[in-house]
# Entry
Amino acid sequence: MYKTPCSRLTGLVGTSVSVNQKLLGKNAPRNSLSTRSFIQLSRRDPSQWITFQHLNFLRRQYVMRSSHALYQRAKPKQTASLTHLEDHQDNSVIRKIQQVPTIDPGPVVATVLKPTSGQAVSPPPATVLPTAAEAGPEALEAPHVQMETDEVREARLERQWKELKVDLAELPDVYARLSKIKLTALVVVTAAAGFAMAPVPFDPTTFFLASLGTGLAACTANSINQYFEVPFDSNMNRTKNRPLVRGQISPLHAVGFALACGVSGISLLSLAVNPLTGALGALNIFLYTCCYTPLKRLSITNTWVGSLVGAIPPVMGWTAATGALDPGALLMGGFLYCWQFPHFNSLSWNLREDYSRGGYRMMSVTHPAMCKRVALRHSLGLVGVSGLGPVLDVTTWTFPLVSLPINLYISYLAFRFYQKGDRASARKLFFCSLWHLPMLLLLALTCKKSRTDPAGAAKTLSLAPAP
Amino acid sequence: MTLKTTVYFLRKSLCHDMRCISENVRRCCSNQPNKRDHSFKRSPFVPPADSKHDWIGPPHRLSNLRPIIYQIPENETELEKQLRILRQETEDWNHAFWTNQNITFNKSKEAFILSQLKEKGMTEKDEKGRKRSLHSEEMAVFYKHFLDENCIRHNNYNKEWYRRNFTITLLMGRVAFHKLWRMFAEKAG
# Structure
């Protein structure tokens, strides 16, 4: 159903629950890598997603090595894949043109030939491929064939004009892409981890309501983010197929959807779970839409704000369970906060050109030394935060021990990144961060301190208002 | 590569670009909002006459933004006209900015690469005729410089974009509300 490759929600959930099983298989880490790479990329920010080349690399991995049923890609709709194909070809032609040093916008458009067709009908598949194929090699040949290429190109471009009306059949897909459903799913998983780690009896109803409310709040934040960033998304390869960029819905429609999700999500959290969780949800939406999104173009502090935004969902999960902002909640948030830096800094290292052209102010471009330093610092911080687990009575003493290997490994990769600062080390650190977080959360869950103090647990429960 | 040389080459190319940019901006933004600047970006596409909706096209090769052809309904109200004009104006303004941004970026990048290669004593193309490129760490100097130099321009664009986006969405809301009101009034009356 979704055009984008890699992972389904069930795949992700299945992965996070049975990570141990997957790690036993040789290809499993790669599968989880491909799966999570896409999701984690979505997590951060549209402009920070990998470039077309990287996506192709990941997609090839995913398609070739997929062995688990959960990871099988659904067959995309014919028209959707066609549009996707056309967009890719268009992009390659544009890139070829943009490689020419002297570009004069005037004369190029003036060579536009007579329109061949006024109808924007999806062309039959047979004509699309040969068109692209002949446009590609011909563009490199002698100038005397340029006219034909232009004609063919113009005809193809004319066919891509679409009527701006809402297609009800495509609406669920549009909403899914507008709300970045995979990123939302990841946020819900981290909130669920926070809920599961809370030292109270597991209440399935509250768990479900908290997850649903968090999911709706995340949908709101992601939709507003896309609403703000339409022209920037248009100029990045990975984000140029978003619904607002393609005009599948109007900006008003997107805002309406966001409001509907936001109002229902926050009300659900405030009324059906507890007001504290609702307040945290509202705060997170505000931080993401009104602080992080504009700050991306103003200052490098956006990364710290973004890390805070990522750290709040597990805190919300915990407060949904206990009703109080315990130190344990902050510990769960601390895991996510520290993890964000090696994850994002390494990802952004290889996207410096896109950021520069798009006008995004990221550490990797403006303060490269700081970027590497901060990634290393917070990777080492993960060791410290894991050590706080038994201190705060959240986990047993075995947790710092069993998590030490993976924490040391990511710190080692962060150190290599700090030393070398090249594309390879950045990529290695990024891919490590993708499996590191689920592993860490799973280990924490398995090392969760059992409730041996009924009095203490009762005291915590009595603080929570009745749902 | 010394900083002086880098700055020199960048200044040189950017001065030329600024002249191009100001020409283009003047050409584009001096037009009346409801006239189309055909030479700059309009494609020859004409939507069918019986269509009641706007039409959106493929991304423009320079700005990567998708042009929209707005349909003018028969009984267009003042509010709807205001919205259409604002959207068209914003689209043209956006297109001008991003075209210039992409062109400037690519030109500055080419100039930087050339100057760096000259410094190293290498030709633009290698023995096989392929264009040489620089190491990503060398390019990072250029990326940082480009961001720093265009900081104020980007900030101004951001502020203006947010303002226009809000205004358009608010207007759209008002238009939608008026349409609904009219529909209910007609049904009741």
Notes: The longest helix of chain A spans residues 204-228. The radius of gyration of chain A is 24 Å.
